[in-house]
Amino acid sequence: MTNTLISDRDRFAAQHPEQRIALNGRDWGFLDIGTGPALILMPGTLGRCDIFWQQISALSDRLRIVSMSYPGTGDVADWANDIVAMMDHLDLEKTSILGSSLGGYLAQYVTGQAPDRFERLIAANTLHSVAGMDQRLPYALDLDTTPIDDLRAGFGKGLNQWRADYPDQSDLVDLLLMEVGGRIPEMELRSRLKVLKAGPELPDPRLPLARIFTIQADDDPLIPPEMRAAVRGRLHPSAAYRFLSGGHFPYIARPAEYTALLEQVMGLAPTTTHEWGKEAERTL
Q1: Rounded to an integer, what distance in angstroms lies between the CA atom of residue 106 and that of residue 125?
Q2: Which of 66, 89, 122, 284 is 20 to 30 A (C-alpha) from 23?
Q3: Contact yes or no for 242/217 (Cβ under 8 A)
Q4: What is the DSSP pairing of strand 26-33 with strand 64-69?
Q5: Could you tell me which residues come within 8 angstroms of residue 200 by beta carbon, excluding any fewer than 6 positions away?
Q6: Which of these, 50, 96, 63, 102, lies nearest to 79 by C-alpha position?
Q7: Number of domains within the chain
Q8: Per-residue pLDDT band at 2 (split at 50, 70, 90)
Q9: How far, in Å, CA of 81 to CA of 84, rounded?
Q10: Nearest 5 degrees, angle CA 49-CA 61-CA 43?
Q11: N- to C-terminal Cα distance for the chain?
Q12: In the 8-state DSSP scheme, what is residue 180?
């Protein structure tokens, strides 16, 4: 049976191959697509830059979207410096940034370090602190010496449990299993895990509250309710977007609603029938 998500992603990847760039000595992947106000997209642990293909396809006629794949070395501070270096390379004086999960932590860090370079922060399905991260699997493992097959198998176990709980998202699980099964190379996968395990505490938010937004999902298996509340409590977003369903990957599971959300945040004319409303907490 055809997996339409994988087929669509592969078609997009063939049309838009990942480019490579050295930033401060680290090898990053990226896509730079579209015209208009700039938006940087930072994926989570299980995504490359094309994981946002549905949003890029829907919005690149109105936004310049720079989506990035992580290198195999560096830490949160290094990666934040690299994002700013990427902006300089692309002649982007200012940009909005959306980070999901790991990317959301990094986005909070870089906007706290260089607030004058960012129009908006969109912190999605992410965490507020790495305190205690080194006590949780897989972060509790020795991430340099644990066999890569064991790390990949651990992710696979969690993803297949998600499939059992939400069988209608089986296509999404298969796509993510491809990512963790080898589409993300070993050193890049290890690096993503190590960055959070050894991550610094976040600097205070320094953007005006009107330019800060959060995205969360009620059924996110990785970000529990108390952590979602802590993210909102830390950031005090002007709008807190809440998916009633969508798990940890609502940009894949509910792409039309995610696109409508980004249209609203970025001040674009709506192209879908999905209405997020104008309340402080917006739910679909």
Answers
A1: 12
A2: 122
A3: yes
A4: antiparallel
A5: 75, 76, 77, 109, 130
A6: 102
A7: 1
A8: confident
A9: 5
A10: 15
A11: 30
A12: I
Residue 201 sits in a domain whose CATH number is 3.40.50.1820
Look at residue 214 and give its three-state secondary structure.
strand
Query: If residue 68 lies in a helix (H) or strand (E), which one and from where to where?
Result: strand 64-69
Strand partners, 217: 243
Buried b / exposed e over 37-62, threshold 16 CB at 10 Å, is bbbbbbbbbbbbbbbbbbbbbbbbeb
Query: What CA–CA distance (Å, rounded) separates 244 from 66?
Result: 28
How many Cβ atoms are within 10 Å of 69's Cβ, its own excluded? 21
Closest CA to 100 of 176, 15, 210, 178: 176
Domain enclosing residue 235, as ranges: 4-283
Q: Strands 38-42 and 64-69, how do they pair?
A: parallel
Alpha helix segments (H runs only) across 166-217: 170-178, 186-197
**Beta-carbon count within 10 A of 105 CB:** 26
Contact call for residues 204 and 112 (beta carbons, < 8 A)? yes
Mean of the pLDDT values across residues 247-257?
Answer: 97
Asked whether residue 1 carries a pLDDT value surpassing 90, the answer given is no
Per-residue tokens: 254: 């509910």
CB distance 186 to 148 below 8 Å = yes
Residue identified by tokens 């309710």 is: 225
Provide the whole-model pTM: 0.97
Phi, psi of 92 (to 5 degrees): -100, 105
Q: How far apart are CA 277 and CA 261, in angstroms?
A: 10
